[in-house]
Known about the structure:
5 strands
Amino acid sequence: MPRGEHAFQYALLRLVPDEERGERFNVGVVMLVRSRDFLGFRAQLDRAKLSALGPRLDSREIGEQLSNLRRIADGETGAGLMARLPLHERFHWLTAPSSTVLQPSELHTGLCTDPAMTLGALFNRLVA
C-alpha cells in the first residue's frame, strides 16, 4: 500500500420501492476506514424518484429511517444499542443484507488518503 493511503470498504444504500418490480435507486453511502477509525455515512432521498417509483411509500418515514441509520453510524448517544457497538461492528450491521425497503449493496473496497473527501466523492458520483 502506498505511503499515506488507507484501505477502505463501502456500500451503497439503495431504496427498493417495490421488490417485485426490482427497481431501486441509491440513497446513501456508508464507508469504513479501520486504520483511521473512520465510519462515514451520507444519505439523500430523491423525493421525485420516490414519488415516481413508489408513490405509496411515505417519504417522511424513509427520511427518518435514513436519519436513524446516520445516527447509528455516528454512534450518537440515544440512538440505541447498535450505536454503542465499535465502528467496524456498526459498519457491518449497517451493510448486512436485508429485505427491507432500504437495502445495502455488496461491499466495495479502495484506497484513500482523506476518508471524508473520499466519502464525499463517492456520494456525489453515486448518489447525488
